[in-house]
Amino acid sequence: MQAEKRAYCGGCGFLVTQCVCEWVPRLSTHLNIVILQDPKEAKHAKNTVSLLRLALTSVECISTANVDVLKKVLLQKNPAKWRLVFPCDTAIAVESIGAEEVSEIEGLIFIDATWRKAKKLYFTEPLLRIFGAVSFSQPPVGQYKIRKSPNDASLSTLEACAYSIEQVTGDNMQPLREFMLTAQEWQWRKQPLSHRHDG
């Protein structure tokens, strides 16, 4: 009985009792996405990157613990055609990128970690700072409510990716957000309401 409870779905990788296969949207974008993920985030049950990877096949996830692989991946990216989504002092608003620059962007890099660890990675990995950075001046309200956020303007990695893609390409990523919400409600349906973080 215990083994059955811990059985995993071969499609989505979640526990069979938390399978989300029936809701995975079929989305595409010409942008390539690289997620630099902290190992603890990869193990976190409430992390949204696993959902993101199901919906977008262009997502590549690299562990920040594997420094050699991380450096190799970054060195393979052309700084003229890739942008780092990170709110550093030199970041420009993604909403204000001109049409000519947008046409040259082929990929986006995200850091999936706590804010403290994301900042540490940015300032200790020189390769990250060779990419032009973009941030959000008018982000949508985050809808990921089952995990604490540092402030009201915080977005999950999935939401940040969806918004960035929309701003750069014009592709509609609302189905991605809806998938996140549906999966969130289904997978945490037995969680007491008091454990959620609706503000």
Please give a structural write-up.
- This protein has 199 residues and is α/β, with parallel strands linked by helices.
- It has a single domain (28-144, 153-184), classed as 3-Layer(aba) Sandwich (Alpha/beta knot).
- Helices cover 34% and strands 14% of the residues.
- The chain is built from eight helices and six strands.
- It has helices spanning 2-5, 39-43, 49-55, 67-75, 99-104, 115-124, 157-169, 174-187, and strands at 32-37, 59-63, 82-85, 92-93, 107-112, 132-135.
- The protein has a six-stranded parallel beta sheet, with helices on both faces.
- The longest helix is centred in the last third of the chain and has 14 residues, at 174-187.
Distance between the first and last residues' Cα: 38 Å
Instruction: Report the biggest beta sheet as strand number plus sense, adding barrel if it closes.
Output: 6 strands, parallel
Oligomeric form: single chain
CATH architecture name: 3-Layer(aba) Sandwich
How many helices? The count is 8
CATH hierarchy, class: Alpha Beta
**Strand order, sheet with most strands:** 2-1-5-3-6-4
By secondary-structure content and strand pairing, the structural class works out as alpha/beta
